[in-house]
Amino acid sequence: MTLIRYVLFVFLSCFLGSHSHAQVRIDSLFPVRGFCIAAPQPRQLDAFIKFIDEELAPRQVNTLILRIDYGYQFDSHPELRDSVALSKREVKRLVKTCQKHNIRIIPQINLLGHQSWASKISNLLKVYPQFDETPQVQLPSTYVWPNADGLYCKSYCPLHPDVHGVVFALMDEICDVFETDAFHAGMDEVFYIGHDKCPRCSGRDKADLFAGEVNEIRNHLALKNRKLWIWGDRLIDGKTTGIGMWEGSFNNTYRAIDLIAKDVMICDWHYERPDQTAVYFATKGLSVITCPWRKPNFAVTQTQDMLRFRNSVTPVMKERFQGMMQTVWSGAGPFLDEFYGVKVNPEAGNDTATNCFKAMFSELKKLSESN
Question: Which of 109, 115, 254, 318 is the most exposed place for a label (fewest CB within 10 A)?
């Protein structure tokens, strides 16, 4: 071996060994380092792939949740496609990019709740209005909250005999095309459930209904060894904790926490305070990820809390505190515009998803290097 080759060999060995050690270290501290955003539209695909390559991968993001809903060209139910939707070929570009960086990609379709937004009905209830839990509630031309109907977002009826035949076909297809071992079903902010005018659900326990739907989805995914992820707000008692009706439940679904399968991954989001409910989920036997949005200081606190939880509990409990995930509640296009300074909202000040994202992953890096 020549001197030059020897020096190169030593350099690469040291570099790769250091890199491997750093990777093992951050994996041991924060098993999940996630990013959640709406899937890009086809015209945004190149820019989003560039973002994965240049921003997510260097920050050691290892989980990407893409909110798909009906933005894919489904073959199983083409009637549910959005007018602008990703093709199979475009999805495979995303899959290949994530595989290159060892990023686990998880698609999301909102199930149960969030079947409308403001004055717009979702594709599922538009095409299959018979699935509507509250068909008597009409969407107003101008939406305001609060309103006499208690309408936030519509839900499908979990006991309708035909609903799962449709949504499970969508789930299977989207999981297949993304080559994934997990699926995110949303299931947050479900206000309409067990409605007293529903011929199937009226009079039934809302916790039983919610848990039944979670377990139904979970069991279907398990047939192909896939795991279910959901948002955690409906499993928190919003009244007793004072957390409120958005980040917690006021309609008694919170008791479902004792009825759902223990292998469901909980994405625990808190955006106005860094509430430490991850401890609650872990003590109930559930794995949990803490999810900030637009408050950088809270994201730093929540990241520190997650590490503290993992370091201060039994080995059994430790494995339930799975890590952190930045959430973005805009389309991919507006987020990328904000991130790259193309279009910035000066009124937002420091409280933006971009700044929160940077702060959270800076703190992850700092903690991984100092622990």
Answer: 318
